[in-house]
Amino acid sequence: MSYSFNKSKFKEEILDHVRNFSRKTLEDCSLQELYQAVAFAVRDIITDHWIATQRAYNQKTPKTLYYLSMEFLIGRALGNNLVNMGIMEEVQEVLDELNIKINLAAIEEQEPDAGLGNGGLGRLAACFMDSLSTLSYPAYGCGIRYNYGIFKQKIEDGYQVEYPDDWLKNGNPWEVKRTDNAREIKFGGTVSSFVDERGKIHFVQQDYESVLAIPYDMPIVGYKNGFINALRLWDAEAPDKFILRFFDQGAYQKAVEQQTLAKTLVEVLYPNDNHYQGKELRLKQQYFFVSATLQQAIAKFKKSHSSLYLLPEKVVFQMNDTHPAVAVAELMRILLDEEQLEWDEAFDITTRTCAYTNHTIMIEALESWPIDLFSKLLPRIYQIIEEINRRFCISLREEHHLSENIIHNMSIISDGQIKMAYLAIVGSFSVNGVAAIHTEILKKDVLKNFYNVYPQKFNNKTNGITQRRWLGHANPELAALITHTIGDKWYTDLMELKKLLPYAHDKSFMKEFDDIKFHNKVRLAQYVKEHNGIVLNPHSIYDVQVKRLHEYKRQLMNVLHILMLYNEIKDNPNGNFVPRTFIFGAKAAPGYRKAKLIIKLINAVADKVNNDPLVRKYLTVVFIENYNVSNAEIIIPAANVSEQISTASKEASGTSNMKFMLNGALTVGTLDGANIEIYEEVGPENIFIFGLTCQEVLELYKSGNYSPWDIYHNDSEINRTLKSLINGTLSPDSPDLFVEIYESLINRAGDNLSDPYFILKDLRPYHAAQKLVDKAYLDKEGWIQKAIINTACSGKFSSDRTIKQYSSEIWGLESLKMNKKSY
Ligand code: 26W
Asked: Which residue in 92, 216, 444, 730 is a FRET match for 229, CA 20 to 30 A apart?
């Protein structure tokens, strides 16, 4: 079932909208107003299908997924919706016929990114939503409608400066407010209990503060199948806006507090990635959207089912990391306190309905809430967690005969803290990692005690990305070439790309493939010219590292390598160097000092390199500010080299690695996360692997046998490179600026190991791998072949594959076949 498109109706809608909402004609409306008009006309088509999908849900009451996530990094919707509806060209034709001399792309640019996420975890949730609709799986994405998404980054004097992301200022044409589905969420107060006439004990929360959760639904359009799921984002409102007028002093005070709570609750996305902070407001956000979602899911379930014992057959809650792990206890609360079930029944239902995905092994990312804070905010939920833990510890002792020491280590509550990962594991029937190696590390290392007790819960689901956005929309020329060559089945079956393999040696295909890469490089050069004022050489190797700035991702190693090249060129001005453009994009958490200093360092090196007449013949360094989904769609298709250089074992999966590969870039990477699976798919000739393996890293940590000091002393080039951090080469006005970075690489500071991410250890092997890149690039045909092979072998990394695996191995969902009757 594809989407019905009626050209003349579409035209009328645009004109009507411009007239009714902007009180203007086409000639004098702004680009923004035009965008709004086009978006509403598209939404109008979507709405009919949305209603039909909803009707099919109601008729068939299929098992439904609730994907609980604090983050959905959706980006822009217009272009993506047009791709999935298959009406991109038709809409451009309408614009042409209306005599609007504007490209659809320019209209698309008017849409602000829905930047409701930090990085990998949030973007994964967005790709999953696209695949769920495309595969016709009944699902809701459930999250928070933040008033401000991830901050806007500007670079001022080489430093990151954050600005608020007021993404809703022009309204959001895609959302529908669903006041009818509002829920009350309770915070604080006390819990009292009473025993009823049958001897059953009841718990009641009193003197609480409450907020109203109001859902806004955004359509997630399936690819040419007429299937629309909802992304349900919860907004907060005060429970009764008129309450202020009616109450006495005490109630007045409370009403004011509730107003404030509602205002602050959904104000802003926490901009930390992989770093837990323990802020009370964050816990409020977590409970807020989880409680709203669960209340609504249970209410919906009860409309068509009489027994809650059927819940696990009809509903599954997937927790995207531990951020929504409070769902385990909230579901227990609803089943016990509102539905009057007994503990054992409630726990059985809960542990067959909840599932948990782990996305990181970084210790500093682990969420553990102080008991004081938690029990004050969520007193009843805390009681329930205590009871879950009490029974869990008894079972470890009596059924699993574990030592008190191990039981203490596994306890959900210990040392004054509630460990959310442990709650998630105990309360779920499935625990999955996001790449094969990551899952192995969870089982054998980080969560091994839990694996020993619950081996059947653990499984792997290697991440994926949606080809509709990351090829279809981001790289339309390559998409067209591929469709022309092997047909369009790849849109819904990415393994079809294997059919490109024979074309890796077809001269005319190679030329077209290479021409397209060149156009994409020119397109990026224009973007950089506009935004940075720097002119790029599109014949140079575009070497790209775009991702959150984090020490474990080792942007610093990339920069040190650039400094090594700088020295090489200075030493040998008549040498033959392969021209390279190093491109960075990265936001640092606003409170992460070291990461921000590394951004400053990248920009200092860029200034040095780009302003040296000798060096700039060969090297250019650019830092693209405000890396986000939209500019990723311009950056990634232009890359020749994809930098995936995390310290082995630290990057759970990575997903930009997959986007680059799909677009024909070659990976320079460590054997970490999904890089390992990319390596398996393309083979050793089509990737540049270097550095320590996971096992070597884990052993080095354990043995403590690492001395960066030795490398610093024995490798004169590395020595010289590090010294340029402190001798004023990069920051003549303040030579001490980068001392902290220098020190952390070679000197132990307090409890901190020196060079904990093994940058110096891997720098030489990295440098050697980069020399192989140069060599490979000089063989122009060989390089194009490798690039084509990368694209051809990227089929495994479609999020459609990932979602099918989740569905058959965890969720037990079935595709909802829509018949004509549902319309
Ligand atoms: C509580 C603070 C906090 C915030 C975000 C802790 C942890 C996170 C995320 C789990 C970090 C994250 O985005 N992890 C990334 O998840 C991707 C999707 O699975 C993986 O591809 C990345 O390797 C992983 O770093």
From this structure: 92
- pTM, two decimals, is 0.98
3-state helix, strand, coil in the chain (%, to 5): 55, 15, 30
Helices 759-778 and 716-723 cross at an angle (nearest 10°) of 100
Kindly give the residue spans of alpha helices, DSSP state H, lying in 656-758: 656-662, 675-682, 694-703, 708-714, 716-723, 739-746
DSSP string, 470-507: IIIIT-HHHHHHHHHHH-SGGGT-GGGGGGGGGGGG-H
What separation in Å is there between the alpha carbon of 120 and the centre of ligand 1?
6
Q: What gap in Å lies between CA 740 and CA 556, rounded to an integer?
A: 13
Q: Which fold has domain 61-76+111-463+806-811?
A: Rossmann fold (3.40.50)
Question: What is the H or E stretch that residue 125 is in?
Answer: helix 120-134
Residue 673 CA: which ligand 1 atom is closest?
A: 23
Question: Are the CB atoms for 697 and 648 separated by under 8 Å?
Answer: yes
Domains 61-76+111-463+806-811 and 467-694+757-797 share a fold: yes
- The residues, any chain, with a CB within 8 Å of residue 48's CB and separated by 6 or more, are 4, 823
Helix (H) or strand (E) holding 127: helix 120-134
Residue 198 has pLDDT above 60, yes or no: yes
Provide Rg for the chain, Cα atoms.
27
Q: Which long-range contacts (CB under 8 A, 24 or more apart) does 700-708 make?
A: 700/758, 706/753, 706/755, 706/758, 706/761, 708/745, 708/746, 708/754, 708/755, 708/759, 708/760, 708/761
Q: Establish whether 359 is a catalytic residue.
A: yes
Tell me the best of 360, 587, 797 to mutate to test the pocket of ligand 1, counting ligand atoms within 8 Å of each CB and taking the most: 360
* Beta partners for residue 752, in sequence order: 749
Calculate ∠ Cα 440-446-448, nearest 5°: 75
- Give Cα 476 distance to the centre of its chain: 23
Residues in the chain: 823
Tens digit of pLDDT for each residue in 314-335? 999 999 999 999 999 999 999 9
Alpha helices, DSSP H, located in 494-648: 507-532, 555-571, 593-610, 629-635
- Provide the residue ranges of all domains of the chain, joining segments of one domain with +: 1-60+78-110, 61-76+111-463+806-811, 467-694+757-797
Vertex 148: Cα angle to 104 and 183 (nearest 5): 105
Pairing of strands 368-370, 209-221: unpaired
* Candidates 659, 761, 767, 796; catalytic one: 659
Residue nearest to atom 9 of ligand 1 (CA): 274
Asked if pLDDT for residue 247 goes beyond 60, the answer is no
Closest C-alpha among 537, 612, 514 to residue 567: 612
Q: Which CATH architecture has domain 467-694+757-797?
A: 3-Layer(aba) Sandwich (3.40)
412-456 per-position pLDDT tens digit: 999 999 999 999 999 999 999 999 999 999 999 999 999 999 999
Annotation says 723 is catalytic: no
